[in-house]
Amino acid sequence: MPATDSDSSSPAHHTSFGRSILSLRHRDQIHHGFPPTPDHSHSSSHASSSDDREIDAFQRHAADLLLDLLPSPDPSASPIAPEILSLDWTRHLLDSFLICLEEFRSVLFADAAALARAPLDRLLADFFDRAVKALDLCNALRDGIDLLRQWRKHLAIAAAALAPSRADPAAPLGEGQIRRARKALTDLTILMLDDKDAGGGGGQRNRSFGRGPAAPKDGQGRGHHRRSSSGSGSGSGSHFRSLSWSVSRSWSASRQLQAIGGNLPVPRPHDMASTGGLASAVYTMGAVLFVTAWALVAAIPCQDRGLQAHFTVPRSGGFPWAGPVTALYDRVLEESKKKERKHSCGLLKEIHQIERCSRQLMEVTDAAQFPLDDEKEAEVQEAAQELVQVCETLKDGLDPLERQVREMFHRIVRTRTEILDYLSRPNTTE
Q1: Residue 339 confidence (pLDDT)
Q2: pTM for the complete prediction?
Q3: 364 Cβ neighbours under 8 A, 6+ residues apart
């Protein structure tokens, strides 16, 4: 997959990269290409001390970013981050990952001569093998975002059917309005159930952030690259399922997560000493990559999105981010075990709202007598208003979320390409 320069897109929720913990000298090196040959006029001990400080600062900043994603332990305190597993929180998570990856890249190039030396070369190769596996996850996540867009269309139909009449806003809801809303919600429920069942089913590998879709021939086959929005009802579920996923039928998000986080190599004291601490930076970025990918798969509908991948950080490692990353992992796992979310297509807060509002409206309007009495009319209008709010949240949040997932894809590709390009240069180990 060819890398694409995506510097024009920047994280929306955090401070700019210009306020990074890293020095201006190193940021300038990143923006203007690869670092020059090290200046040997400086003492090696001074350079080592400076590198150690920056590696430590990188790890502490990663810890702070992860900590900001956790709910405040004080209920009376103003929340630092959006509600966990909401759309806003998911974007906040992606921002944190992008910042960590950029600073990781800068830390590596601050001592670029060490990249080709053992054991750092082995540790970097292992990290990028895991990072490449996250690229398929990015493609699968985009499919999940497309699913949410389809669900939103059905919600919008139901909300529009229940909207007050422009001619007479005070007029009670009629039987035709309720019937149209129930039809849209029934179609939505069938679609959500079908996509839930299709978690292990598939489609075809036909879309990627790394390349555009092939042009359809003679106007045919457009649906193979973008879901049709016209289908609805019980017959549409299998159609959506057959075109839903851009990864192969046997592909599994659960297995991909296990490959990203399983047996993540903890740096040994010898590795730490021989790499000047860079081994700990690689381990830090590997942990951030896993917990980010794992939380995204937990939140967004994905093919075979099981969360069985286990992840632990050794307590004796002295990593400042160990506590926040473990707490974040446990917090998301706790949400997945809640009764109302255990069998959901995804843990995203807005998905839970869709399921709850749809169920409430269907129950309230089941076998309703018309005209509705005042109490039932108020219940329907309250549920309809919540539907409108969810629709607006999805409308405003899905496009920025997809751009951030795309940015994650391209940043991983670009970082890997730059490292490999640098290592392919002659005399990089001198």
Answers
A1: 87
A2: 0.80
A3: 376, 379, 380, 383
